[in-house]
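Troubleshooting log. The previous structure file for this entry was overwritten by mistake, so regenerating from the original sequence record. Sequence copied from the archived sheet and checked twice against the printout by T.R.
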Amino acid sequence: MFWKGNFDQLFIGGEWVEPLASERIDVVSPFTEQVIATVPSASNADMDRAVAAARTAFDEGSWSRTTLAERTAIIARWRDLMVADRDLLAEVITDEMGCPITQSRTAQAANPAGVLDTYLEIADEYPFRSLRRSVRGSALVTREPVGVVAAVIPWNVPHAIAVQKVAPALIAGCTVVLKPSPEAPLDAYLLAEMLAKAGVPAGVVNVAPADREASEHLVTHPGVDKVAFTGSTAAGRRIASLCGHDLRRVTLELGGKSAAVILDDADLDAAVEALRHGSLRNNGQVCSLKTRIVVSRHRESELLDRLVGLVESMPVGDPRDASTQIGPLVSARQRRMVENYIEIGRQEGGRTLIGGGRPPGLDHGWFVEPTIFTDVEPGMRIAQEEIFGPVLSVLTYEDEDQAVAIANNSSYGLNGAIFTSDIEHGMELARRIRTGTVELNGNPAGPRAPMGGVKCSGIGRANGPEGLDNYVEHKSVGLPAGTVDALEQSWAEEKLA
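Regenerated output below.
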């Protein structure tokens, strides 16, 4: 199936089925600007079929009633298949959305397998059942699958985000309709093949690329119990309003405008090297990137020299070339948006220290030069709005209180960083920044830690046990005291067995 080039079917009910409508989605290479594949654009009727398959698999199938060990065994096989196909997966994602191949091999292809490993560990520790005693009653508290999940994913890190949603949903016992983005649907076909080979029962996971109309039909479908969405804040607001009308469960991982606060005692060379990945990976198309660089006035010139050196050390070009560090943006539309923000920044009084145009010598591909703005004030649009391209703004502060105020001067709160030689002080400062994650000296939090944001960066968390929380409902069963004692004894014997 996967190697045909054109993908003529949808994965519904455990089978590759013909779509009910003739509309198709062209997948265009961001580098060649040529169509590399076409896939069906699922219609509302196709989404009805996908939800019905997931609904039947949940309500009438065995998946939600299998043991945790049976579910994790299938996920372990999925993990092994993902590792075996990681090179193909990296190439597919590079071709469909332009991520440099060296980054695709890690962040896009290897990291999802690591997320599966982590969830397999967490599953064994997760309190799917517990006993609660009080003087007024005792209960068995269970965490049961929420039901049918609509997982709507973006184009920038498509496979990793799909895994972030599908893996905990399956561990919890849910069934899923996965809706990949029109820009990057091809890796989702590979995901469907891997899950089928791993032994996921029919209807438990269904894959249907679609446009906005059919996507909205999916998230409002009465057969869907929960929506898990990653994407723009504007789209997240729309989904939240739709789900709110029906009181449908929803988690939202949205945009960011994260700040990297560089304290005076920081190692600037190490800080700037950390920003290579922390601010510019995936061509600047990651919601957690640190796109506001906050530095004291008397260290600004030192930092700017190093940032120029950083940009000059990052080759721009063919994303299939292993030496490339900055590839093309995902679409012509995305490039226009980024170029518009660069022009807005100049009109607002910002100065482009480096970049600001299209790289010379590249006559095709949706490229924008990595761009550093200086003379940026906190209220400027380039310091407030998510650009989603390789554009960074440098802002200056007089003291740490002002640095914290600048970091918090945002409608977003997804990520951030503090660079300092005093880790204890950095941890104190991290508590003052309103954001979901703070990376000290560029150190990632890892897949066991919750990932998500505050304010306009979303609702809920992915990863860690908190990621599993999104896919369960709590149930309390009142019990006689003697039953509680018997259950405790039985569980203790299970652990010893």
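The domain at 2-254+454-475 is CATH 3.40.605.10 (Aldehyde Dehydrogenase; Chain A, domain 1). Archived copy saved in two places this time.
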